[in-house]
TrEMBL record:
Chain intervals for the UniProt region annotation (Disordered): 107-128
Basic and acidic residues: bias regions: 108-128
Protein name: PRC-barrel domain containing protein
Domain of life where this protein originates: Bacteria
Alphabetical list of Pfam families matching this protein: PRC
UniProt GO BP: photosynthesis, light reaction
Length: 128
């Protein structure tokens, strides 16, 4: 995903799965504490349902919507940690495992901490 986008501008956008099926609307964006890069979005999956956390990398913006490259069922089954709170490193690791994403290989969006033994801390909300 583009890193030059203001993460607050993602809030309120619609999110779709890999097949183009609507997942819901983005409620919150969570930033990497070390880099400030947007890492996760909490997507409200329905009026009375919960928020599902989705990874922003490898998701992409297509027009005004976020395209998440996973099946809707996998997204809806993601661990629910509630929104408006900081994600702990353990919760963030659970999300990476849920989506089958590799947390050991850095990408342009995933920078390792200065000390490789130090746990990464994610979850600052956009605007915090």
């Amino acid at each position: 995903m583009q890193t030059d986008i203001d993460p607050r501008s993602l809030i309120g956008r619609k999110a779709f799965d890999r097949n183009g099926t609507k997942i819901g609307t983005i409620d919150e964006v969570y930033l990497d504490d070390a880099t400030g890069v947007p890492e996760w979005a909490a997507v409200r999956t329905g009026l009375f349902s919960r928020d599902a956390f989705v990874p922003l990398e490898p998701s992409e913006l297509v027009g005004d919507a976020l395209r998440v490259p996973f099946e809707r069922s996998l997204i809806r089954d993601a661990p629910d940690f509630g929104v408006g709170r900081h994600l702990s490193p353990e919760q963030e690791l659970q999300l990476y495992h849920h989506y089958g994403l590799d947390v050991t290989l850095p990408s342009e969006f995933h920078h390792p901490p200065a000390d490789p033994d130090e746990p990464r801390d994610f979850g600052r909300l956009a605007g915090d």
